[in-house]
Amino acid sequence: MKINSLRIKGIDVNSNNKIFEQPVEYTFSDVTLVTSKGKNSRGKTTLMRFIIFALGFKIPLTDGVSKNRYKTELEFTKDNKNYTIKREENEIRLTIDGREVENEGVEYFLNFFNLTKEEELDNILGCFYIDQEKGWTLLNRGRVIGKRHFSIEDLITIINKLDKVVEEKLHLKNIEVESQKIKILKNIKNIKDKSMFKEDKKTLNLLEEREELERLKNKVLSIKNYIKSLNDAIEDHKKFFLRLKRLGLKVRIEGKIYPIDDENIIGMDLEDSFAELEKEELEKQLQLYQRKINELRQRIDVKTNLSTTEKLDELIQSISIEENEYQSLQEREKKNTKLKREINKSIKMTLNDNIEEFWLILRKVLIDLKLPEEYITPSIVLDNKLSGKTGTLLHSLTFGYKLSLLIYLEKKYKIKLPFIIDSPRSGEVNLETSNLMMSLTKKYLGENQIIVSSVFQNYDINFDSIISLNNGGVLGSRDKFIYQ
């Protein structure tokens, strides 16, 4: 794989105007140096990141540059095919030999390595790109750039298709989630035991109070409907007797005739009186329920507007953990701790069984870098203590790792990736060490493209081309090119 050219167009996010009437273009050869004229060191890292950005990776651009939007067009060749990647923000279009193909992000890169997840490509990026900011502190695990993460364990797993390790890591993740939950519950129990909260057992939590409010509202609605039915019945009685009196009917009792009127009808309003009494009782219940509803609404309003800490207090109060449950949590925690140790041990054994091929490459490189014998050991591949190294030793180990990983990837995938190195003489690295790095790069990656960014030019390596950035940096003089 060889990067041939990169074109950049800028768009001002405030005015939406183009920053350049014509795109800025850079061409790359087999061995390219990106440097600066005079003492100015502006733009080198920006250009290196633009290359990675144009390839489709989600990485941050440098300060000042990142505030605008950019369209990039990058051309590279691989296996005698010409690739063109056009990117604007997160939209990426891919053309292969002049034919546009369906593509999502860095999907083409996934195909190069038979990968399925974009996150897995972060490990590939960590092999061929050394960033000035994060790259020279990244050894066998850590951040490549921004949120892009590299792990030698993940890379070995991906390359060797270690399905067992993938399953064990998923199991480990689930156990860790459960352990976090147990820890939270134990902390809640400890907080409550220290009487930091006075729990009111009569106080319902927010969810229960909302349920109670709905229950009371339904009860009130039911009572109101019943009162309405009583009112309707009373009204019907009144209308019935009124019609009866209007008919002027009379009754004969023992030879005497009596008119049907209020005086002669006994108990006519008795049923209505009972209904009125029932209504009074129901209306008293309504008043009681309405007071409860108002109180609940006030409490719910208060809790809804609680601060984050107050909501946490409320949540803690609502959780009840009995002593036997607490003991069960402790037992589960012990089992999880033991299980995590066993799984981690199993994962490490599987990885150790698959690092020999990489170690044989790394060993040769570390010897050529003239590192102390204590670092030339297979354990260094998965060592957890490498992050404590500093200075020239750290840079040499980092470089040795990256160089070895590129060789390893080429053996596994039959692909020659470009080696993109930003500021090999940063930190405490002297000319002798940086020259050794460059000569080893040429020795081991003689057929790979090499792109180096440095303010220095006196390396023991012949550059086919040199890109010299002026005071305008990568994007040139913005004021000169902006137009309406």
Quick rundown:
With 484 residues, the protein is an alpha/beta fold. The chain folds into two domains: 2-162 and 354-481, P-loop containing nucleotide triphosphate hydrolases (Rossmann fold); 206-321, Orthogonal Bundle (Helix Hairpins), CATH 1.10.287.
Q: Could you give the topology of this structure?
A:
Blueprint (H helix, E strand, L loop, with lengths): L1 E10 L12 E4 L3 E6 L7 H11 L14 E10 L2 E8 L2 E6 L2 E3 L5 H6 L8 H8 E2 L10 E5 L2 E4 H8 L3 H31 L12 H41 L3 E4 L2 E4 L10 H35 L3 H11 L4 H30 L3 H13 L22 H23 L5 E4 L8 H14 L5 E4 L11 E5 L8 H4 L3
Parallel strand pairs: 3-14, 3-15, 8-13, 13-14
Antiparallel strand pairs: 1-2, 1-4, 4-5, 5-6, 6-7, 9-10, 11-12
Helix pairs in contact: 3-11, 5-9, 6-7, 10-11, 11-12
Describe the structure.
With about 475 residues, the chain is an alpha/beta fold. It has 2 domains: about 290 residues, P-loop containing nucleotide triphosphate hydrolases (Rossmann fold); about 120 residues, Helix Hairpins. It contains 13 helices and 15 strands. A 6-stranded antiparallel beta sheet has the order 2-1-4-5-6-7, with helices on one face. A 5-stranded parallel beta sheet has the order 8-13-14-3-15, with helices on both faces. A hairpin with a 2-residue loop joins β11 and β12. α3 crosses α11 and α10 crosses α11. The chain is elongated, with a radius of gyration of 40 Å. The C terminus is likely disordered.
